[in-house]
Amino acid sequence: MLFCASSKQSKALLIGSAFLVVQSRSLSLIASKSLSRDEARHVVDHALCPIHQERERNLAALEAYGGVPASITNDDPRTEYTYGEFPYNSVDELVDRSQKYVTRRDDDGRTNFVDLGSGSGRLVFYQCLTRRNWETHGIEISQQFHDLALGSCAVGHAEGFFGPDTGQPDASRLAFHHGNALGVEDEFFAHTRSEDNERIQRVLSTAHILFAYSSVWETERTQPFSQDLQAMILSSKWSERLAEVCPQGCVAITTDRALSPDFGWKLVDRADVENPSLFGSTGFISVLEK
């Protein structure tokens, strides 16, 4: 049985005899064991973020900022909040390729992975279940999606896939954070200067690998396409802010838009990957050189 108690300061989940405290709407758990990729996909698609509930997740995207008109144009800033589910095979290919560019300044071998715009947490759960000794973080601006992720955490704990983080070495950990990665007020999410924003900035400041399903995110207005990179360029609000807060050597994976080299993001790799919802996507891998 699941009981929830919430306040402005914390939220608590009580599952059986386990008491998990979510400070500032963040939750940290560990994977009970590593799974194969096929096993993890089955767990996520049938237990944590069931395929048959995708329509509910799409409705959550609409409710997140009060609904949308019947149609919106490509230049509508709300396209950044369009919900989509990136294929497991494609994220695996891009994350696998990105690891050869990761440099470390510590000795514990732990990889800090951040999914920027993590939605209901689908890829965060998957990475945590399949990557040993990883810290996997989801950052989501929508309250509705963040709550869905926390609910899936409760299901995962009840089913024995995750447990409370008690400091076990080499365990893979996951955490979800609610707020705006840009650290500013968002015109469509007036609540996004949340108590968790400070924690989000700390998470980004230690990221080894950053993933963003950015295919419909806003492009740079003055120069949306780079002839040098042969790529659409993300808005400078993303390229600049992420360059400010992410560490030297951070490896960023973006889809169908590249981060701007004007802020230190060096494009080192790209790959065309499957994405049925868009008839394919291009993943861009950039390394931050401050």
Strands of the biggest beta sheet: in what spatial order?
7-4-8-6-5-9-12-14-13
Order of H and E elements:
EEEEHHHEHEHEEHEEEHEEE
Structural class: alpha/beta
Helix content: 25-40%
Instruction: Please compute the radius of gyration using only Cα atoms.
Output: 18 Å
- Count of DSSP strands: 14
The end-to-end distance, rounded to whole angstroms, is 49 Å
Number of helices: 7
> What does the average pLDDT come to?
83
Strand fraction equals: 25-35%
Low-confidence stretches: 1-25
The description of the largest β-sheet is:
9 strands, mixed
Overall 3D geometry? globular
Describe this structure in words.
This protein is of the alpha/beta class and 290 residues long. The protein contains seven helices and 14 strands. The chain has helices at residues 37-48, 54-63, 88-98, 122-130, 143-158, 197-205, 236-245, and strands at residues 2-6, 10-15, 18-23, 27-31, 111-116, 134-140, 162-164, 173-178, 209-212, 225-226, 231-232, 251-255, 265-273, 281-288. Helix 1 (37-48) runs antiparallel to helix 4. The longest helix has 16 residues, at 143-158. It is globular, with a radius of gyration of 18 Å. Mean pLDDT is 83; it is low at 1-25.
